[in-house]
Amino acid sequence: MAEFRGWLRRNWTTPVILLAIFLVALYLRAYFPWDLAVQDRLLSGGSDSFYYERIINFNVETGQQLVRDCRLNYPMCLINPRPPLYSWTVAVMGKALSPLFDSVWASVTVVFLSSTAVWGALTVFPTYFLTKEAFGRRSAILAAFFLATLPAHLQRSIATNADHDAMVLFFVVSGFFFVLKSLKSLQQRNWVQDWSFWTKDGRTSIRAGLRGFFGENRTAVLYAMLAGWSLTAIALIWQGWAYAPIVLLGYFLFQILVHRLRSQDPMGIGIVFTITVGLPL
After folding, report:
1. Pairing mode, if any, of strands 68-69 and 78-79?
2. Number of Cβ atoms within 10 Å of the Cβ of 190
3. Which pLDDT score, from 0 to 100, does residue 8 have?
4. Residues 239-259: what's their mean pLDDT?
5. Picking from 19-23, 120-124, 188-192, 269-273, which range would have the lowest pLDDT averaged per residue?
6. Please, are residues 83 and 237 in contact by the beta-carbon 8 Å criterion?
7. d(CA 39, CA 158)
8. Is 79 in a helix, a strand, or coil?
9. How far does Cα 24 stand from its chain's mean position?
10. CA-based nearest residue to 265, from 223, 213, 227, 204
11. 21 vs 24: CA distance, rounded Å
12. Distance from C-alpha of 241 to C-alpha of 229, rounded to nearest angstrom
């Protein structure tokens, strides 16, 4: 506790600035459309928003996931194309906050309409941490502020948009941050001296190398798992989640090439990538 207080006295400006940026981001996304939309439950996100409203209503009424929906292709019915995490987040949070409102539906409506604004504003935090790891504190504060005021991001994270895009971006940026932390904490050396798995000595060398890697890279493995869970969250929100691991695959292949040119062992990066992408698969 004493160490934390000492750190806070030395660095109190950063949390204050980040909190101010978060409040600015939330204000820009929620203040202007709120009075126009909340009274009549107006949605501005188009067909996606209206279908999410249908799914969330079903979740709240039945406590179950909407799997087959006959409203999509009556009377044959179709499978609900939306993964469940976003709709269930709104439904559960709406019911949890219902004692503060006149009814469950009033609570769910407020959570639903404000969800994109909240997730959009929250994204300033992983943006700060990702940029800080790559370029330093000052650049990170600027990046967080630019995201808070960026018109393209505002467009997809405004309150009443009621879609999954802002939530997806939060976990995308978080996942990239955890990947970067994993790579920066990775211990680099030749872990396996002999990859001849068809021989006894080769298998012994491989086992020893893997034990040594996981024993000395627990922090890197933990961050890789957090990155993997972030990608898993994206997969449970958005059908197009494969774009995120494809970006990581491009970086992974480039880094493998760099390692080979430098005669460095790429096994550590390969394990980090495998854990990160393997968890959502």
Report:
1. antiparallel
2. 10
3. 65
4. 89
5. 188-192
6. yes
7. 17
8. strand
9. 21
10. 213
11. 5
12. 13
Q: Closest Cα partner for 85 from 206, 239, 214, 192? A: 239
- Residue 266 has which token pair? 């790429």
Helices 47-62 and 85-96, packing angle to 10 deg: 60
Q: Reply yes or no on whether the pLDDT at 149 is more than 70.
A: yes
Range scoring the smallest mean pLDDT among 41-45, 59-63, 223-227: 41-45
* pLDDT bracket for residue 40 (50, 70, 90): low
Contact between residue 178 and residue 212 where contact means Cβ atoms under 8 Å apart: no
Q: What is the DSSP letter of 165?
A: H
Q: Which residues, 6+ apart, have CB-to-CB distance to 159 below 8 Å? A: 29, 30, 33, 34, 37, 113, 114, 116, 117
- On the CB side of 8, CA atoms within 13 Å amount to 6
Three-state secondary structure call for residue 262? coil
Q: Of how many residues is the chain composed? A: 281
Residue 281 has what DSSP assignment?
A: -
Match 């609570």 to its residue by tokens.
107
Alpha-helix runs per DSSP H in the chain: 2-11, 13-37, 47-62, 85-96, 104-122, 124-135, 137-149, 151-157, 165-184, 200-216, 218-235, 243-261, 267-278
Lowest mean per-residue pLDDT among 108-112, 148-152, 202-206: 202-206
Q: Report the C-alpha gap between 270 and 50 in whole angstroms.
A: 42
Residue with token string 């987040």: 89
The dihedral formed by the CA atoms of 232, 234, 236 and 238, expressed in degrees to the nearest 10: -150
Here the tokens at position 142 are 């600027």
Q: Is 54 exposed, middle or buried (0-12, 13-18, 19+ CB in 10 A)?
A: middle
Q: How far is CA 23 from CA 14, 121, 170, in A?
A: 14, 8, 16
**Banded pLDDT at 69 (limits 50, 70, 90):** confident
